[in-house]
Design a protein that fits this description.
By secondary structure, the protein is α+β, with helices and mostly antiparallel strands. It contains 6 helices and 26 strands.
């Protein structure tokens, strides 16, 4: 194999594929990227056996062929090559030469035949989403994905189409994530072709890799899925992932519908206030107390090590006064995703789940469990 490819093109593709490769691998071939060249293109493929990414780049192919080489090593080399350079990759006798200008590297390779490939089994459901829509769906939910491995079924985003009869007759698609302390849900009209889609849980790592591919893209993403796999085509990249084999809990039971204390407030002003008063908080005391009073909220933090802090924030509140505590980081995560200059915070009491949304027409809603303060 011998190919010549522009450094910037190769670096961008390697940046995508090498992030799938785990830094520590007990199986040597999984540390490698598979390079295969034919015609006028070169394909780069990486996998961790659960997730696979293939990216295609334009290249000058002088000799077709395929080989595998350390993904992180090749990425580091190309990253340090001057911008604008042409990079030549040539495989001779199980060694790959990487040549750019006066620099030359020789890398060990492993046989292409040993490289595992996730089978392209039948994926019966296929539909398209604008890149901006998918980006929005991911950003408004992924912060609530659980990192607790024991509840593995919460380690991803739950994507499903609720029955129209149970959803006011509307055909919609929902994305939901929760870690048991907070919940994020976004709803959108069901895309054409997604009718009859299975309920799926997309793993956290696949979500992170898709989100990287969506940066600066404004075109359409092609999505195909089955009960066990999902494939997304983003520009010249194709990402295939196994899905989490588990049952997502009935999240609708924790979304409050009768919270009668309503607070309307500017999310940016609230976030700035929370950020300021938590400057004295330690890791152990992440709690911020919100004291509701007519037309204002008093934010306060008490730290046994550092002292106390408080700040009054103007708000629209007419119910009876009461106090509630939240994990400040969880609250800031939600406030960072809410758009507009006013949000609705629906509360019942200091122990009940709190509902946060822009208004009753917004696509996204959030549920936050209070803390004892």
């Amino acid at each position: 194999m011998k190919v010549i490819v522009e450094r910037a093109t190769l670096l961008k593709a390697l940046g995508h594929v090498q992030s799938v490769v785990e830094r520590r691998n007990t199986i040597p071939i999984l540390s490698n990227v598979l390079l295969s060249a034919d015609g006028t293109t070169m394909k780069l493929m990486a996998t961790d056996l659960d997730l696979q990414i293939v990216e295609e780049v334009a290249a000058q192919v002088e000799m077709a062929g395929a080989s595998t080489v350390s993904a992180h090593t090749l990425f580091d080399i190309v990253r340090k090559i001057p911008d604008g350079a042409q990079v030549t990759l040539e495989v001779i006798a199980q060694k790959m030469s990487v040549i750019a200008g006066r620099a030359k590297f020789q890398l060990q390779t492993l046989p292409r035949e040993d490289f595992p490939v996730i089978g392209e089994t039948d994926l019966p459901i296929s539909f398209q989403l604008p890149a901006e829509t998918l980006r929005n769906l991911i950003d408004k939910t992924r912060f609530a994905i659980s990192t607790e491995e024991t509840r593995y079924y919460l380690n991803g985003i739950f994507l499903h189409a609720p029955a129209a009869a149970a959803n006011g007759g509307a055909n919609t698609m929902r994305a939901v994530a929760t870690d048991g302390h907070r919940l994020a849900r976004i709803e959108m009209p069901l895309p054409q072709g997604a009718e009859g889609m299975p309920d799926v849980i997309i793993p956290r790592k696949a979500i992170a890799e898709v989100r990287k591919l969506l940066d600066e893209r404004e075109d359409t993403v092609e999505i195909a899925l089955s009960p066990s796999k999902i494939r997304l085509k983003v520009g010249g990249a194709m990402l295939t992932s196994k899905l989490i084999d588990g049952t997502f809990p009935d999240y609708s039971r924790v979304i409050p519908t009768a919270n009668d204390r309503l607070l309307k407030i500017d999310p940016a002003t609230l976030a700035e206030g929370v950020d300021r008063v938590t400057a004295i908080a330690s890791e152990k005391t992440r709690a911020v107390k919100l004291s509701m009073d007519r037309d204002r909220v008093t934010l306060s933090v008490t730290s046994p090590e550092n002292g106390t802090a408080s700040e009054d924030v103007p708000a629209d509140y007419a119910a009876e006064s009461f106090d509630v505590g939240f994990n400040s980081r969880y609250l800031l995560d939600i406030l960072g995703q809410v758009e507009g200059d006013s949000i609705e915070v629906h509360m019942a009491d200091a122990a009940a789940p709190t509902l946060i949304r822009e208004n009753d027409q917004s696509q996204a809603l959030y549920v936050l469990m209070p803390m004892r303060v």
